[in-house]
Amino acid sequence: MTLKFPISPRRTQLALLVFALMILMAKADGQSIRFRDITAQAGINFVHNNGAFGRKYLPETMGPGCAFIDYDNDGYPDVLLINGQDWPGHQKMGATTPKLYHNNRDGTFTDVTRKAGLAVSLYGMGAAVGDYDNDGFDDIFITALGQSRLFHNNGNGTFSDVTRSAGLWGPNEFSTSAAWVDYDRDGKLDLLVSNYVEWSIPGDLFCTLDGTHKSYCTPESYKGTSLRLWHNRGNGNFEDASAKAGLKDPTSKSLGIAILDYNHDEWPDILVANDTQPNKLYLNKHDGTFEERGVAAGIAFSEDGVARAGMGVDAADYDRSGHPSILITNFANQMISLYHNEGNGLFVDEAPRSEVGHATLVTLGFGCFFFDYDNDGWMDIFVADGHIENEIERVQKRVSYAEPPHLFRNLGGDRFQEVTNQMGVAFGLPKVARGAAYADIDHDGFPDLLLTTNGGRAYLFHSEGGTNHSLRIHLVGSKSNRDGIGAVVRVSSGNERQAKMLKSGSSYLSQSELVLTYGLGQRARADSVEVEWPSGKTEKLSSVAVDQTVTIEEGKGIVSARPYVSRLAAHP
User: Fold this and answer.
1) Are 108 and 43 in contact (CB under 8 A)?
2) Which of these, 394, 334, 401, 393, lies nearest to 362 by C-alpha position?
3) CA 371, CA 312: separation in Å to the nearest integer?
4) Facing residues of 439 across strands?
5) If you ran DSSP here, which 8-state letter would residue 47 be given?
6) What's the rounded Cα separation, in Å, for the pair 389 and 353?
7) For the ranges 20-34, 470-484, 502-516, which has the lowest average pLDDT?
8) Which whole number is the average pLDDT over 243-270?
9) How far apart, in whole angstroms, are the C-alpha atoms of residue 366 and residue 353?
């Protein structure tokens, strides 16, 4: 027998209210997404060697970076971790090298560093990934203190050090972040390298926090150095075009690089985060030269007119205005910068009026990026934190050496909410973090996180619990550079429109995967996908299904499509 109860209007209203609250709660917690630490089970055993032995040399505090690279073109991103080395005469860890871990496509990785030819000892800082010779295989540039290195992908699982033959041998600098960019749109990737300060062991200075003990010096103690722009000649060789392009500036103390088209002229511009010097925004003049616009655009200084200690950087259209805005991490007690693009050549720092600013006032940020961690179609913010001075608590009680990261969920309407504490215990633990990157390591449609720590282990966090749909787009250029770096892809679904540029660099010393992911919430397909290639060609596709990675080749449209696979969480 079935019992029937009359449903009053009041009970109906109450039920609707409860249902609405349930929806809002589900939206607020990002579908109960968590980031699970899978580093150990994935087989990634890496500890950064900063060489520290008590003298507190400035470079010890800065690294390391990391990158995702699909070096064997199997559709699954592999992991590259950059390492330092012992100082001469002070052996601590022995020979240490970068590490390349091959993705086994089952949630585990295998160390293939020596087999791949990357077991080269250097005081590494960061990395940039790109196919500079358009042979279909991504190459690696590793920045370093001293001689940076270019490794050519041979297409058979190995790399060759081509630094000398490529014309990049010679400069012994304190190089930090790097980015591949086709700044002249000739179809060949050029290389942009940021440099920090003039530092050497003989020239190391004594700095102190308490008047007695040596501490790490600020960059203000050392002379600055200039960016380097290496122009790709197209024959496997590069030439230094820094001065010719108008980028030579010996006052810079650069740590982060991001590429963006901030004025929508379809030419890549350059954003540089400087430490204790004004940030720089270089406008592409379409003739191989750039014009510096940082002060005029409003991104050079803080609201108080002070040059902050810029570290990491990224650029993206986080509010769907159609204009890329800017994120820059700064030193402790400075909060990060969230420069909103007003669409008229000007930027306004929204951080002081946002939870993004309030929550980051005391922490010291390094790696950072915009990414849609919950696939709801709105770009969220991740920040890797960690101080440089291990005894900072002695002189600043509110500041700590190891710090939790920040994850800010984009609520729309220029509002962000910190959700770090909802992402799992391991994710929120304090760390001395530096580099950070994201990629979908198991092809389930949700971005996973890679994080490095100074003098410590690396972390690989797998995203779990998401239910929203997404569409991943892999580009293959023909007239444009092979990776499609610099292409802008616009995806429309219903009345929602997202635009993203495929770019190298960003974050801090690191690089995320060269695949674009578009979160589409509960929508089953994208109504249109429009690609603006660096060559100037535009192509438009209609009605593309979600929950797959599509490869779009310039001039041919979609040439392959791979549906997502089951979640790693189901096969730990």
Assistant:
1) yes
2) 334
3) 15
4) 448
5) B
6) 29
7) 20-34
8) 97
9) 21
The Cα–Cα gap between 238 and 215 comes to 39
- Mean pLDDT (the chain, rounded): 93
The contacts found for 340-343 with CB under 8 angstroms, 24 or more apart, are 340/414, 341/262, 341/317
Contact 122, 142 (CB under 8 A): yes
Question: How many C-beta atoms lie closer than 10 Å to residue 267's C-beta?
Answer: 18
CA distances 494 to 85, 489, 521, 527, 558, Å, are 53, 17, 11, 7, 21
CA atoms of 316 and 314, how far apart (whole Å): 7
CB atoms under 10 Å from CB of 349, counted, come to 21
CA atoms within 13 A on the CB side of 540: 4
Contact predicate 539/556, CB 8 Å = no
- Can you read off the two tokens belonging to residue 515? 């695949």
- Burial-class residue 52 by CB neighbours within 10 Å (0-12, 13-18, 19+): buried
pLDDT at residue 145, rounded to an integer: 98
Chain segment 306-355, per-residue pLDDT in tens: 999 999 999 999 999 999 999 999 999 999 999 999 999 999 999 999 99
- Per-residue pLDDT, 223: 97
Both tokens assigned to 269: 């511009």
